[in-house]
TrEMBL record:
The keyword Transmembrane helix applies. This is Membrane associated serine protease, rhomboid family. Coiled coil: none annotated. GO terms for molecular function: serine-type endopeptidase activity. SUPFAM superfamilies: Rhomboid-like. It comes from Roseibaca calidilacus. Pfam families: Rhomboid. It is a multi-pass membrane protein. It is found in: Membrane.
Length: 252
C-alpha cells in the first residue's frame, strides 16, 4: 500500500478554504456519528442527503449533488479523503485564490456526482464522500505540477518506508487504477466513476487557468516542478542515545 504523506511543494499563502473544508467534513461527520449504531437510521440519513442516482433520474434531490460531498461512510473513509485534501489542496487554492478554489472544488464534486449518476442511473444506492471533489483537486494538481515530488509511505506488512515519487506517477497511476476498476466488474462499494469524473473535471476546469499561466510555456520554465524552491525534509537526530543489545552474562 502506498499512502501520500506530504508533498515538496510549499504554498506561499495560508489555505483558509482548505482548512475550512477539512473542518466542515470532520464536524459534519461527528454530528451524525451516533447514527452508526443504528443501521436503519444511518441508511435513512444517507438516502436523504447522499446522492441517489435514481432520485436524480426522477427529477428531484438535486441538492444532494452538493450535500453528498460532506458525508462519509466511516472513519477511514473520512481520514483518507482528508489526507489527500491536506496534501494537495493548499497548492490548488494558491493557484485559484480562496473563493475561486471553493467554487472549483464544489464544481468538481458536482461533476463527480453526475458521472456516477450516468454510470448507474437506476441505482438506489446512495453515494457519499468528498473523494469526487478531491479527485478534481488531484487532476488540477497534475496539470500544474506534474513533477512535484510527493512523499509516499510504502507499507508492506511490517515494512515501512517513505519514498519520494513524482506527482505524474502518483496521480496518473491513481487515475489509471480508477479507470481499470471502473471498467471492470466491481462490487466493493467504491464509486469509481465519481473519481474518474471528478478527476477529468478537475483537469478541464483548471485548463483555462493553466493556459493563462502560460500553458506549455509554464512547463518549459518550470520543467513541471513547482515554480519555487521545493521543501526539503530530513529526519532530525536527537540527543537520546541508541540502546544497544547487551549480552546476558548468565547465558552461554
Amino acid at each position: 500500500m502506498l499512502i501520500p504523506m506530504r508533498d515538496h511543494n510549499p504554498s506561499g499563502k495560508r489555505p483558509y478554504v482548505t482548512y475550512a473544508l477539512l473542518a466542515a467534513n470532520i464536524l459534519i461527520f461527528i454530528s451524525y456519528y451516533g447514527l452508526f449504531a443504528n443501521d436503519t437510521a444511518l441508511m435513512r440519513f444517507f438516502m436523504t442527503w447522499g446522492m441517489v442516482p435514481a432520485a436524480l433520474g426522477a427529477g428531484f434531490s438535486f441538492e444532494t449533488l452538493l450535500t453528498h460531498q460532506f458525508l462519509h461512510g466511516g472513519i477511514l473513509h473520512l481520514a483518507f479523503n482528508m489526507l489527500f485534501l491536506w496534501v494537495y489542496g493548499d497548492n490548488m487554492e494558491e493557484e485559484w485564490g480562496h473563493l475561486r478554489f471553493l467554487g472549483f472544488y464544489l464544481a468538481c464534486g458536482v461533476a463527480a456526482g453526475l458521472a456516477q449518476y450516468l454510470s448507474e442511473p437506476q441505482s438506489y444506492i446512495p453515494m457519499v464522500g468528498a473523494s469526487g471533489a478531491i479527485a478534481g483537486v488531484l487532476g488540477g494538481y497534475l496539470l500544474f505540477y506534474p513533477r512535484a515530488r510527493v512523499d509516499m509511505l510504502l507499507f508492506l506488512l511490517v515494512y515501512f518506508r517513505i519514498i519520494p515519487i513524482p506527482a505524474w506517477l502518483v496521480l496518473g497511476g491513481w487515475f489509471g487504477m480508477q479507470v481499470f476498476a471502473g471498467l471492470g466488474p466491481s462490487d466493493d462499494g467504491v464509486a469509481y466513476w465519481a473519481h474518474i469524473g471528478g478527476f477529468v473535471a478537475g483537469v478541464v476546469f483548471a485548463l483555462p487557468l493553466w493556459l493563462r499561466r502560460g500553458g506549455r510555456a509554464l512547463w518549459t520554465r518550470t520543467h513541471g516542478h513547482p515554480p519555487h524552491p521545493e521543501a526539503q525534509y530530513r529526519f532530525v537526530r536527537t540527543d537520546i542515545p541508541a540502546a544497544g543489545r547487551r549480552r546476558n552474562p548468565w547465558l552461554r
